[in-house]
Design goal:
The complex is a heterodimer. By secondary structure, chain A is an alpha+beta fold. Chain A is 34% helix and 14% strand. Chain B contains ten helices and 15 strands. Chain B is globular, with a radius of gyration of 18 Å. Classes of the chains: A alpha+beta, B alpha+beta.
Chain lengths: 161, 270
């Protein structure tokens, strides 16, 4: 069947198999391999993308359901060639170690910050509940989100070091 | 790679019911897909048709009338339950229950009808809806029937729904508008885990109703108590009714202890 959808501001029309998951469509048909497959069961959040403004596990969705949808993936963050502010904050605060969870993590954080530009630690934790990170232990990720939303005193941090 | 199936997305209830009537068990309904897709991928089910019901306008939305009460469309998502003004104002227990389900990504997709129809003993919305005495509206080509949620579950992941039937909405009678409530859900980590034991209680001036999850083959509701029922009598009935099991997530003794503890905490609070 034929679907048309918008990903990172670009419209795509493709013939797809009806059993194609949105994740496979994004990765294999469009070659946007930033979005990862972890568990394939909606637990780990590595496949998180933003669909019509809401984060969703793309491994649990069919591409066929998404005709007409507006989708954001990690590739949309640095289209200009420069990392987005949140990506830079992740980089600076060592919130990326192996990097597998990062694309999904950034998508969850992006959707949060759009709704809530100054999230509390609790709100950040809640937003990334569905994104597993097995390297950093989350502390640096939460610090990065605080920095990416201008909620950390960088000078104070330097003095502490 | 998922097994092969045909995807159909009818835009009217009539077309949908005709498909279910024709294909029977060969068709599986896709609402939020957070259980269905896992089952397809795991090979637990192999539908020939995956029938998306999200394009059907009259399965969406929440409304309230003083005569019928609250009506929640089948494909209403958990995040909609959490944020809907009518629900938050009149039946906050539903918003509370929905906010405890899974992760943000799952709450953005999972639907109330999906949660009820999956019929897991630990389904997050079931306890709240049972405590509210909710009913389920079920449609087929031959008509519509209403079943009390308490009579809807027949066993672990089984319900009274037949292959040609569709849950169209959940209904909560107006009697329990603004009732006091308490909920507790035990899980191993704060976010994103299945419930090991859950309790929902609603209380009005005259009535107290207790629903329990993860402690029997289905979510269960205890017989109604008077509002001033002594704690000991509630715990006695609960203890005789529940049949928790040992499994990979918790022992039956632990589940029972936590169910009793939660009931006590909630009743003392209300």
């Amino acid at each position: 069947m034929k679907i048309t959808l918008t990903i990172n501001g670009r419209e795509y029309t493709r013939d797809i198999a009806e059993n194609r998951t949105l994740l496979r469509f994004i990765r294999e048909d469009l070659g946007l391999t930033g979005t990862k497959e972890g568990c394939g069961a909606g637990e780990c959040g590595a496949c998180t993308v933003i669909v019509n403004g809401k984060t969703m596990n793309s491994c649990l969705m069919l591409a066929a359901e998404c005709s007409g949808a507006v989708i954001e993936t990690i590739e949309g963050e640095s289209e200009s060639g420069e990392l987005s502010k949140m990506q830079q904050a992740f980089h600076k605060h060592h919130a990326v170690q192996c990097g597998f969870c990062t694309p999904g993590m950034i998508m969850s954080v992006k959707a949060l910050v759009k709704k809530n530009p100054k999230p509390t630690v609790h709100q950040i934790q809640e937003a990334i509940e569905g994104n597993f990170c097995r390297c950093t232990g989350y502390t640096q990720i939460i610090e990065a989100v605080q920095a990416g939303t201008d909620q950390r005193d960088e000078q104070e941090e330097l003095r502490r070091v | 790679m998922l097994q092969t199936f045909s995807y159909v997305a009818p835009d009217s209830r009539k077309d949908l019911l005709a498909i279910l009537n024709k294909e029977g068990t060969r068709a599986k309904i896709l609402a939020g897909g957070t259980d269905l897709m896992v089952d397809i991928r795991g090979g637990k089910i192999a539908p020939a048709f995956v029938v998306d019901i999200k394009k059907i306008a009259d399965l969406k939305g929440v409304s309230y009338s003083a005569t019928e009460g609250l009506s929640i469309g089948a494909v209403t998502t958990c995040i909609e339950l959490v944020t809907d003004k009518t629900i938050v104002a009149k039946f906050p227990i539903i918003a509370d229950a929905a906010s405890r389900l899974g992760s943000t990504q799952l709450r953005n997709r999972a639907t109330i009808a999906g949660n009820i129809c999956t019929a897991s003993p630990c389904a997050d919305l079931s306890c709240a809806m049972l405590a509210l005495g909710a009913s389920v509206e079920i449609a087929s080509m031959t008509g519509t029937r209403i079943v009390k949620l308490a009579d809807f579950f027949t066993g672990v992941k089984t319900t009274v729904i037949k292959a040609d039937e569709l849950v169209t909405r959940l209904i909560v009678a107006p009697e329990l508008v603004n009732a006091k409530f308490g909920m507790e859900k035990l899980k191993r980590i704060k976010g994103h885990d299945l419930s090991l034991a859950s309790v929902a209680v609603v209380k009005t001036g005259t009535l107290l109703r207790v629903a329990l999850g993860s402690c029997a083959p289905t979510p269960i509701v205890l017989p109604d108590f008077p509002a001033n029922a002594p704690l000991a009598s509630i715990l006695e009935v609960a203890g005789k009714t529940i049949k928790p099991i040992d499994d990979v997530r918790a022992s039956k003794e632990y589940r029972k202890m936590m169910i009793m503890t939660f009931i006590e905490q909630i009743i003392l609070r209300l």
